[in-house]
Structures are given as C-alpha cells and as structure tokens.
Amino acid sequence: MPTLDFDERAARHIQRVYATADVVAQRERVLELLDPRPDDRVLDVGSGPGYLLAEIADRVGPGGAVHGLDPAPAMQAIAATLIADRAVVRLDEGDACALPYDDASFDAAVSTQVYEYVPDVPAALAELRRVVRPGGRVVVLDTDWESVVWHAADPDRHRRVMAVWDGHLVHPYLPRTLPGMLRRAGFRVTGRHLVPIFNPSYDPDTYSALTIDTVAAYVTGRDGLTAADVEAWADDLRSRGEDYLFTLNRYCFVAC
Ligand SMILES: C[S@@+](CC[C@H](N)C(=O)[O-])C[C@H]1O[C@@H](n2cnc3c(N)ncnc32)[C@H](O)[C@@H]1O
Asked: What pLDDT is recorded for position 5?
C-alpha cells in the first residue's frame, strides 16, 4: 500500500493540523526535552512545515546553526516562508538515511513523526549517530497508531478504516521498538516520555477533528472502503459533540 504522499495539498493540511493547540503543546514538550542552548548547532530530520525549526532558532540565537532536512519540496516551501526572517536556519533537501553532513557536525538533533515513514530505521539512526557529536542530545518522537481510542458508532466500520489507515506509514507501531534500535545504533537512551493527545469533545480546530479529513482522503477507495462508507464514518465522528472521545499516544525518547 502506498504511504502518505507529502505533496502540496498534504503539506498545507499538515501545516494547519500542526498549528492546533494539541500539536503546539507537543512541540513545547519536545523543545523542553531537546533543550537547545545558545550557539548550539541543531539538526531537525524531516523538518516538515518548519514550526520546530523556528522555535529552535530562537533558542540557539545568532551564534547557533539550525538545519532542517526534508525530502519533500512542498514541505520545504512552507518551512521557507516560516523561517524567512531567521538567518540561522538552513533548509536542506535530503533523506534521513543519507544525511548530507560531516561526522559530528551537530550538538543536538531532533526528529518528530518521521522515522515511522522511513523504511530502514536502523540505517537512519546510524546516520543520526554519525552526524551528532559524542555526548550530543537526540530527541525522537513517534506515534503508536494502535493506541488510538476514537468513539465511533459502528465499531466494525471503524476497525476497517483504521486498518487501512495503518498503511499510510511504514511503521505504525514504531515506538515499541525504537529504544532498542537507538541502543543498537550506539545511543544511550536517557529518557522515555509519553506525549498524549486528548480531545474529549468534538472541536473542529483540534488535531483529531482535522485528522478525520486526512484519514478519509487516504482510506477512500482502498481495501473496499467506498466513498459512502468513509463519509458515514466521518459524519458520525463529526456529529458526536459531547459524546466524542479521541486519544492517541506519542512516545518521545531522549538519547545521547
Ligand atoms: C508527519 S511530517 C512531520 C514533520 C515535522 N517533523 C513535524 O513534526 O512537524 C513527516 C515529515 O517527514 C518527512 N520524511 C518522510 N520520509 C523521510 C525520509 N526518508 N527522510 C527525511 N524526512 C522524511 C516528510 O517529508 C514530512 O515532512
């Protein structure tokens, strides 16, 4: 099954989803764990729309350097606008498995919701180990899509939708194996943190409400799910009001 395509439409939607209070809070937690210091050189692998790049730039100041690496031109275009007035940020096109940097180039690195899309995670972590100086801090956050609780009227239809949605990325349950992979890549894991998203009622400006659109666009026409099936699934969730409930767990690992 083809994974999510980070084209212009997807990039614009991600930009909107990542501006919700849910994802703003997630970034605050990631930034707190990364703890970039003035003059640090920091890499963001799979920097996407660039929100985190801007926040890291403000922490490292004019003496630091921030590199945002991403293979998707549509994502880089959005990030370019966001970081336009932050001279310390550089955007580089490239892949997590072949980082275009010298050994030990960075004091710290971060990667949020990226390795779950990368087929060869051990190769990507070996690259991360190579470009971060010994003792430098690394923060990696990914989602376990089996952690989702979403109150739907038709459990069978909901299970079918979510099973197809699992195909939108290569590793839907990556956090379970990430600490071991980090260790085998030569890192010492120093922190494990739960970063949940909790939407206890329906609000169109939340992570989960906007994710209904993302899921619907991806699953329609796949594995026998018709437009009518998916529309009924989405309409049910959107009409739940106070009977709505969504939770999802993200896991954040700190290593050096
Ligand atoms: C879900 S977005 C997350 C963006 C950003 N890290 C954030 O949390 O705001 C996933 C990003 O990973 C990027 N990506 C996908 N495969 C990649 C790879 N092999 N190497 C580097 N980045 C990749 C995509 O282009 C996209 O920008």
From this structure: 87
* Residues with a CB atom less than 6 Å from ligand 1: 6, 14, 18, 45-49, 51-52, 70-72, 75, 95-96, 112-114, 117-118
The pTM assigned to this predicted structure is: 0.96
- What are 44-81's pLDDT values in tens digits? 999 999 999 999 999 999 999 999 999 999 999 999 99
Residues of the chain with pLDDT below 70 are none
Q: How many whole angstroms from 223 Cα to the centroid of ligand 1?
A: 26
pLDDT at 22: 98
Pick 8-146+171-198+248-255's CATH classification: 1.10.8.420, 3.60.15.10, 3.40.50.300, 3.40.50.150. 3.40.50.150
Q: How far is the CA of 226 from the centre of ligand 1 (A)?
A: 29
Beta strands in the chain (DSSP E): 41-45, 65-70, 89-93, 106-112, 132-150, 189-199, 246-255
Give the residue extent of every domain in the chain: 8-146+171-198+248-255
Distances (CA, A) of 169 to 56, 114, 151, 172, 193: 27, 10, 23, 6, 22
